[in-house]
Structure formats: C-alpha cells, structure tokens
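Friendly challenge for the regulars: who can give me the structure tokens for this chain first? No prize, just bragging rights.
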Amino acid sequence: MRYYESLYIVNPNYEQDRLDEVMKMVVDKMDEYGFSVINHRVWGKKRLAYSIQKHKYGSFILLQYEAELAENLDRFERFMVLQKPILRNQTVVLDARPEVHVEEEPVSEEKKDNEDPSEDKPQEEAVAESAETTEESVEDTAETEETEATSDEAPSEESQVDDSETDEAEPAEEAEVEATEEQTEEVQE
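First reply, four minutes later:
Bragging rights claimed.
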C-alpha cells in the first residue's frame, strides 16, 4: 500500500453545502479509481500567497488516502485539474499511514446531565486548578498595581534625599538672606 496526501483549494465563495458537494464529487471519483479515503476534511479558509483566478482567499481541503496501484493516480490528478471549483491541488506521497483525524464535537448539556458525576472529577480538578491560577495572576496584577500606585503617591528614595538636601539648603539660604539684610541695615544706619 502507498499512502498519499492531496491538498486542494476550492473557490472561497462556496458555502458549506457547496463545499460538501465538491468533497463528495472527489470521494466518488476516488472510489471509481479504487482509492481508499483515510481522512477528508476542510482545513479552513486561508489567504493565498498570490491571487488565483482573481481570488485572494481559498478554502483548503485536506485529503489523505491509500492506493494499491499508482496507475490511476495520473487520471485522478487530471480530474482534479479539470474541475472548475478546484483552484489548485497538490499530491504528495507519505512515508507512513496517517492517523485518522477525529473532529472534537462540543458536549451538549444533555450528555453532561446523563454522565456519571465521578467521571467529571478530573475536569472539575482541572477547572479548579485553572481558577486558582487565574486568582494568583489576578493577585499578582493587583500587587503590581498597588506597588505602582504607592510609587506614584510616595516619592522614591532618591527624590526623598533630594528633598532633604533642599530642606537643609533652605535654612542656609534663609540665614544668608538674614545676614545680608542685617548688613544692609547697618550700612544704612
């Protein structure tokens, strides 16, 4: 068995229904050629490096499959090139069988109610740890803000030293001014 991966870009204006139709068309053709699909999923809408048929974006679809014979691979490539909805495609050979991709579905409220509460303990512990971490980060932020507020309100040590020097300097200046005034009074007398 040989394993292959094809990445093809579909017109970005297609909605999910139309993408599903294109994907079904590709899977049908693969069955016709005798390929076995391992993974086939929409990778997402992404910006293209350059415009293709005046499109700046494209819907990327990842297809992984296996084939016993490579005879039909050229015919499959030609099929992909001739399809109007498919802007570009590229196929590469894989060294090993790819893992089956499983989409994670959101858990509904009904499933949560039906589950055994003992199964939720690891999740609850994880949530509690997450909450503790969040509280710690909030406390750290609060401490930082308090420190900054304190530093804004109270002058730093350097400015306190400067203030004390100016306080000492002021009485000295006052003494000089008084001495000058006394000399001026003596001269006037």
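The CA atoms of residues 175 and 181 lie 10 Å apart. Helices lie at 16-33, 73-82, 109-114, 121-153, 157-188. Your move, everyone else.
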